């Protein structure tokens, strides 16, 4: 919305309004025709005062409607992670509250400028025209009240921003807490798996030596002949036993090297 006023020393005033809602236009037309307002129009800042009154009402509805939405969000806060927070909606609310605070900051700066100019008019400007000093003082008092109202609404808007940030932080903390509990459960499961692997390793180490010895001596490179009355028992090792070592030792070394290289490549990722 934009407003522009023009005043003449003969008492004529023109107020131009741009991009204002129809309801505000109708309200201003009604206000300027009230019998109680017409005598006050000798003060050139009375139109500003009337317009600002209506703008404050719009700000009030906007700020408190956002407050009601935020309160509903706080009341319906997800109790468990299964009820996922609606982060896009929360950020959308935050965007609106930031815009509301920005608009109020600009309005307060504008009001400060109006008050400064009205003070000059109260001190010196009224010497150019005949205006009732009581009307001027009442206008200034009302302008001071209006700027205080805007500051109060800005404080409410800033509180809305803080409450929304608190809701977003609370949602993030709830998700982080859930992830932390999940990691604890995963850690417990990994610990159980580690215990199971240790058990398997112990069993393997227990039976592997005996299995190896059994496998070696069951090969055809070894021949055991039981004894009888004619011949004593005999244990014969084949001269080709070297073939076993020639094949098994290089194969074992190649397997270990392959595993070592694969592990280094995997850890490098």
UniProtKB/TrEMBL annotation:
Record key words, sorted: Membrane, Transmembrane, Transmembrane helix
Subcellular location: Membrane
Domain of life: Eukaryota
UniProt cross-references to InterPro entries, sorted A to Z: CorA_TM1_TM2
Major location category of this protein: membrane
Listed GO CC annotations: membrane
Entry membrane topology: Multi-pass membrane protein
Residues that span the membrane, as ranges: 200-222, 242-262
Protein name: Uncharacterized protein
Native organism: Cladonia borealis
